[in-house]
């Protein structure tokens, strides 16, 4: 019996028992459903073993939306607990776990897969490639992310969630103060999905550097591809730092090493530094692709080419360099001294300059344009003023002397949500609406989409702007309650109301997908938005080989030129196309990673070692495997092209 | 698959070129990984708690043996790649075999060194310094161990399937990896051992 006690939840509550039942029922439902409709083979052949960047992108998208609701449930619980003074909905421990998982899920398991979804879906199409450079590795990246996310998500029903904040500062995250296995989950689940992220980084950089369509120079790449490229360079340089920090955190907790301990020479601040050397660039890994999406959308719906292309690229390069030079601003109050703090204040404020350049470029793109107020464009227009407010409060926080007042208050919470929600979340939803027809063959309903936008925008303002005020008044973040005498009650109630509106907004997205699936027309053609870049030049739905003939490019808007200036994109005869084979190994190997991770979390050494051997066997098999792929013949291409409505 | 005969065998297909570029980018990530480990080591090297200091622990003899063995292996794998470009399969296999044997020798001495540390009371848990030292050395040693398996697999494949573009590509990438481990070792030798013994 003692053996099984470690899997119990340290602080059980009815909500958690209800979740256990719900998880069990959903799992059984999925298994029964798949068996009843005889879909196991379909699932395995078409999805679990796929190496097609489009299908992998769709799986990233679904996972991200799922995790959005998981993290959103945490958010609602937090706002409900804080809505009134001295509420009893959650106890302190439960609240700690919820704000921790909310942060981790939203950053690592929602925002990251969302940007990876768009990178996978869009980048190969925008540069006119048939797939990414390493399709098999791409599948492995996805499954590692997926199983990392699953490992993290079972924590709250098996053994307990991490409770030391998403930053997981030591010594709080050490064994002395975080006694449950929760922080083990944090260290290992993020490690597993982090390996996947690093591999995506390598894959995308190689793809963008080597697989562009004939004629496409670097400075002719669409802006989203540029942003993806720079974000992936940041990934390759930032994620290894996290890898090392997580290894050290894991060995501190499991093997009693002394990296971040308070005795035997350990240095707890080393964790904070390593974490943010990764963590701040991570912010730009998320926001740069979002900027890229906004650039595409604003240019399309203003019917103008992007203003200041070169300055857009230059500003992203500068942001990526500066992103590695600002990490200390996350802990100005933790004793570096005035000189260090001043230097990091200046580098932090410097980032607002290239960001400001981008804002003006978007405004000038819209200037004198014929603006169409579609849903993606509404998000983009809403983004600009809201994000500027987030940026301005960021400059306030960057002043290290003033930061002593803001640090660890709700003001900070308001600031970074103000940057992330209009910056990243709005971009993801704009991108979702914009690219939906390309991959699913029908448009999302504009009317419902607009109500989603307004619910989210108004909800966002109501939820987060009051926190600026309560934060300046001294309401601390990560406190599970406050007394009535503080007077924080009414504004927190407003926040709760705003959070409710946002939740409603997210529900309308699901409703929109369902409604549009039922009612939207399917004859939308391949270019429903009258767009400008290559991803719209091929058929909808996109054939497995993307382009029957390689597009010929001679400008940054080759597709627009082909529509307006008679530039001929597709020339020559069809040729046989070489495609990579599907493989089950990435899925199996990642599943073994899951087993290894779970065993490490609970220090079950025998299964851990067996699983690690399994991982190495998978790698060995891959080394010996001969995989020549297969060929699509010319007749087959002609047939597919005809079926999709005309040769391209 | 199109083979471009104007290129060396390891670069002769599109996929081969992608693989090599991808691996260079991976090595960029590896540089960051070891840079972080070195940062941790430099930060924690003076924080020995009640445990031994670097000067108490390091001995020059095994470290010099490790250094010479590993540097030599980097030279022999270079010869192996040269032989491969000349199309001399047996010479290539011989040089790869010597490289792996030298790698094995390096690993043996490193294991001896770790046992020595254990006997003088410096374990993984003793202090922040020993934790950082053994993680840095251990990560490098784990890379060498993985390389031994990887290199063996490549030798088997070359024997079984000959000098195909795929095998040449794998062998070339493996040589990049092996040289990289040597570069890391030079940093370990200079800034961990020599600095620690001063």
From TrEMBL, chain A:
Residues 38-554 form the Cytochrome oxidase subunit I profile domain. Pathway: Energy metabolism; oxidative phosphorylation. The keyword ATP-binding does not apply. It catalyses: 2 a quinol + O2 = 2 a quinone + 2 H2O; 4 Fe(II)-[cytochrome c] + O2 + 8 H(+)(in) = 4 Fe(III)-[cytochrome c] + 2 H2O + 4 H(+)(out). GO terms for biological process: electron transport coupled proton transport; oxidative phosphorylation; respiratory electron transport chain. Keywords: Cell membrane, Copper, Electron transport, Heme, Hydrogen ion transport, Ion transport, Iron, Membrane, Metal-binding, Oxidoreductase, Respiratory chain, Translocase, Transmembrane, Transmembrane helix, Transport. GO terms for cellular component: plasma membrane; respiratory chain complex. It is found in: Cell membrane. The chain crosses the membrane at residues 15-37, 58-78, 98-125, 137-158, 185-205, 226-249, 269-294, 306-327, 339-364, 376-399, 419-436, 448-469, 489-514, 587-617. It is a multi-pass membrane protein. Its main location: membrane. PROSITE patterns: COX1, COX1_CUB. It holds the Pfam family COX1. Its EC number is 1.10.3.-. The keyword NADP does not apply. Binds a copper B center. Heme A3. Its cofactor is Cu cation; ferriheme a. SUPFAM superfamilies: Cytochrome c oxidase subunit I-like. GO terms for molecular function: copper ion binding; cytochrome-c oxidase activity; heme binding; oxidoreductase activity, acting on diphenols and related substances as donors, oxygen as acceptor. Belongs to the heme-copper respiratory oxidase family. Catalyzes quinol oxidation with the concomitant reduction of oxygen to water. This is Quinol oxidase subunit 1. It comes from Ureibacillus endophyticus.
Automatic annotation (TrEMBL), chain B:
One of its GO terms (biological process) is aerobic electron transport chain. It holds the Pfam family COX3. GO terms for molecular function: cytochrome-c oxidase activity; oxidoreductase activity. Its EC number is 1.10.3.-. Keywords: Cell membrane, Membrane, Oxidoreductase, Transmembrane, Transmembrane helix. Residues 21-197 form the Heme-copper oxidase subunit III family profile domain. It is found in: Cell membrane. The chain crosses the membrane at residues 21-43, 63-81, 93-112, 132-159, 171-194. It catalyses: 2 a quinol + O2 = 2 a quinone + 2 H2O. It is a multi-pass membrane protein. InterPro entries: Cyt_c/ubiquinol_Oxase_su3, Cyt_c_oxidase-like_su3, Cyt_c_oxidase_su3-like_sf, Cyt_c_oxidase_su3_a-hlx, QoxC, Ubiquinol_oxase_su3_dom. The keyword Zinc-finger does not apply. It is an enzyme of class 1 (oxidoreductase). NCBIfam families: QoxC. Catalyzes quinol oxidation with the concomitant reduction of oxygen to water. Belongs to the cytochrome c oxidase subunit 3 family. This is Quinol oxidase subunit 3. It comes from Ureibacillus endophyticus. The lineage of its organism: Bacteria, Bacillati, Bacillota, Bacilli, Bacillales. The gene is qoxC.
